[in-house]
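Margin note from the TA: students keep mixing up input and output lines. Inputs are the sequences; the output is the structure of the whole complex. Example:
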Amino acid sequence: MTQTFNCPNCGAAIEYSGAGRTMKCQYCSTVVQVPEELWREQETQQTVTQWKKYVMIFLIITVVLPTCLSLFGVLAGLFGAVIGFLAPVFAVFVQFFVH
Ligand SMILES: [Zn+2]
């Protein structure tokens, strides 16, 4: 979403880059102050974006990571159970055919 404002010197439309509170006019090279509502809105959006990022990190740490770890634990437990079941079978098998 690009926002524009008019150069106070030459009246040309300046496209706000989304960073900083001053910009250079492309047409008359005047350094102009970005209207307060533009950078204020931009900073609010950045704050919201950062806030969303922290919520995502929080969710990953509290929900996704434990879920993955518990799934991994279940798989490891199943693997251990299968090994525990197969080991005696294998031992009996080996005794039958080796001796
Ligand atoms: Zn200008």
